[in-house]
Amino acid sequence: MSNAPDETIQEVSATASLDPGTPARVLLIDGHSMAFRAYFALPVENFATTSGQATNAVYGFTSMLINLIRDEDPTHVLVAFDKSAPTHRTQAYPEYKGTRAATPEEFRGQVPLIQQVLDALRIPHVGIEGVEADDILATLATVAQAEGAQVLICSGDRDTLQLVTDQVTVLYPRKGVSDLVRMTPVAVEEKYGVPPQRYPDLAALVGETSDNLPGVPGVGPKTAAKWIGAHGGLDGVIAAAGEIRGKAGENLREHLSQVMLNRQLNALLRDVEVPLTFADLARVPIDREGVHEVFDALQFTVLRDRLLKMIPQEEDDQVSAGALGMTTTVLEPGGLAAWLQARGGRMLALAVDGAGARGAWDAWRVALADGEEVITLDLTALEEADEQALAGWLVDTDRPVLVHDGKPAAHALAARGMPVHGVRGDTLLAAYLCHPDQRSYDLSDLVLRYLKRELPSAQGEQAQGALDLGLAGESDAAADLAARAVAIGELAPVVDTDVRARGAEDLLHRVELPVQEILVDMEAAGIAVDGDHLDGLAAQFDAAVGQAAQAAYDAIGHEVNLGSPKQLQQVLFEELDMPKTRRTKTGYTTDADALAELFAKTQHPFLESLLAHRESIRLRQTVDGLRKTVAADGRIHTTFQQTVAATGRLSSTDPNLQNIPIRTEEGYRIREAFVVGAGYECLLTADYSQIEMRIMAHLSGDQGLIHAFNEGEDLHRFVGSRVFGVDQADVTSAMRAKIKAMSYGLAYGLSAFGLSKQLGIDVGEARGLMEDYFDRFGGVRDYLTGVVEQARRDGYTETILGRRRYLPDLVSDNRQRRDMAERMALNAPIQGSAADIVKVAMIRVADRARREGLASRLLLQVHDELVVEVAPGELEAVTSLLREEMAGAADLSVPLDVSVGSGRTWREAGH
DNA sequence: TTGCTTACGTA
DNA sequence: CGTACGTAAGCAAT
């Protein structure tokens, strides 16, 4: 071919280097001692995972460790732990450490977590039966010294000071765990008045409260140091005991045996049998994948970032195989068509530099990779021919393309007149299906996890898609984008294998990818709003806020910040001396339920005004939030998140259009602000009625429940008549409400306690209600217990489309975590199956609308509801289309009931 | 400035 | 002591 492009080749490779000439720097840490310090330094109530596992000690310890590694850059590291077995010290002196309070339960559970962190960091840790951590440290410090190493010992136990030499420094925590003092020989002498090797002599005389070793009464560090100095050590002091005058001398003579015992006990052993050699302590690259897992589980996001930033990438584990191989082809202007032609119909990986929000996007660069060969195109300076070639290729459904996070890429390219239609794989969606509980799926993380390679980045930590300034930045950005494209291409087949192994292939290709394409259109369309109406509401709610606030101030005679829970607590529980409500971490709750209860008890007008203020300020906030997000086209373009909800649901952000109020009249007024856009006839909403209960009926196979739905009766009335043993006509509204609450609660793992609380009945009655329910609907109970059992066995739950949620905590030792996981296991198949069905419905609706050439379009999805903008003359067709395609989205043992409404506003369309 | 906590809207 | 989300304000630690 005559116009074959020039090719320049850039090889990118990583080198692993070791530096054999450097003297060893050894860091030895007393694990228990430092973890214990961390436990008391950081408030336990501020450090817990959402499931309730305390993590303050893990956090403090890990933070300290990271700092030490960063600041000291050790070549060798070891953490020693105590083991509970009796030591030579307790054998010689049963009272040893006898005054120590029992280890707090919340601390004990954190030690294994610390060890998990160490494992991920590939730092050896050791605990030996019958040996204290300090003895292990003493032994290894001795070994390391013999190797000529510089040794740092990190311990909160002063006994380690005896190990200090010119080669050995003790890092002793002064306050918390971040403020460590370097105890060198000079520092020890300065602080205690004796050289390090004499420190145990001094401690023997003074005693050590924390070890329950009494010293000589009346002898403190000053006296002890003086004696030791005068007599050349403890032996000299003991020999001269008879000559020491005064009360102190007398006490010394009386306590000689205790002093000698103290000295025997505080001598650290330097010849412990340690199952590790010096070489075993050498630093090795961290297990980056393991770090992600452990830090994810501990919810240490900041700490993880700190850690990963600090560890140079070439040090990374298993990355030594080399970075991504990459051949950058520089195309001549006008050469794109030929380049694409030469690729045939092969699948190419696409990466896009672009940015945008709220319906205003732009793309400025793309990279296309065919295996290791990659090109980048500057979209701001593209020749006409190349632009056409690119647009034609992107829009062609028969030109398969792989992406990572296709939705923003599609928006950005669409803004340049290049819609993308051939997406066959998205490594972000694929990774989400494999690990739905993760909160981020960075390409670089996936490359590490699946390819054991590092994604090269010339720009370092610069945010993806950030604007580049300067020429060097330009070429870096292009190189990074090229690397991303190559990485996506290499990653896709590997992640696909994982997807297949997890049975999620169909979900990816037949559900998530088509849904993504629909979401692009929905987000681009946005929903029209009546700005004047919003302004009016804002003014109205604003006035209501002011009125309620004034009324509240009048009721107590002064002003307070009604938005500050802290100040409210002051007013309610101190000034007004009201009964205490439920406890929170920082005091007593002032939530709406609690305030309503307090009002029932006290009738205090402040509470009424406060509640009114809360409601009004909330509404104003919602309205203000919406006003801020109206785009230039007079519409609100939300972003649907497809990979954040662990159950498979979508979520909506910026703004969240899935939580627009509906339960109060004022809330409805906000829905009036969402209107049909110009050129369209009306809005239409279609929602599934009781989809979760129908899924419950289907999954449980409970004949009673299935019958109820097949008869098409009022579900809660029907169930109520069975549970209470009365005719349906005699089910009161109170009975119906109880049944409704319970039915829904069951899908969330509701307990009798929770039910009683919600219904305001006592626990016994709630328990009875649940028993009656399960007597009549035994299939439901069997299903619920079965689903947890199976999840415990398999490690995951599954929806009707095979979407999995992994729940390792089902076998946790921690009851709170386990209970939480059980409730997730109960809910995930139900909520997740509903999500599956709605997604399938969206695809069917969009497909059929396209086939029938309708101009009406999907705008929103609110979990069980679809909102459509209906083009003129299409209302009838769209109504039946939605009814049919939504009802037909799944084949359950009960019908899927769909209700449809239409109107000028979202409120009118709702029902 | 940042992250945590509390509170509250939806399904 | 009921699941799944997102947002905003106050507040304490930087």
UniProtKB/TrEMBL annotation:
Keywords: DNA damage, DNA repair, DNA replication, DNA-binding, DNA-directed DNA polymerase, Exonuclease, Hydrolase, Nuclease, Nucleotidyltransferase, Transferase. Residues 667-874 form the DNA-directed DNA polymerase family A palm domain. SMART domains: 53EXOc (SM00475), HhH2 (SM00279), POLAc (SM00482). It catalyses: DNA(n) + a 2'-deoxyribonucleoside 5'-triphosphate = DNA(n+1) + diphosphate. InterPro entries: 5-3_exonucl_a-hlix_arch_N, 5-3_exonuclease, 5-3_exonuclease_C_sf, DNA-dir_DNA_pol_A_palm_dom, DNA/RNA_pol_sf, DNA_polI_exonuclease, DNA_polI_H3TH, DNA_polymerase_1. SUPFAM superfamilies: 5' to 3' exonuclease, C-terminal subdomain, DNA/RNA polymerases, PIN domain-like, Ribonuclease H-like. One of its GO terms (biological process) is double-strand break repair. Pfam families: 5_3_exonuc (PF01367), 5_3_exonuc_N (PF02739), DNA_pol_A (PF00476), DNA_polI_exo1 (PF22619). Belongs to the DNA polymerase type-A family. PANTHER family: DNA POLYMERASE I (PTHR10133), DNA POLYMERASE NU (PTHR10133:SF27). This is DNA polymerase I. It comes from Serinibacter salmoneus. The gene is polA.
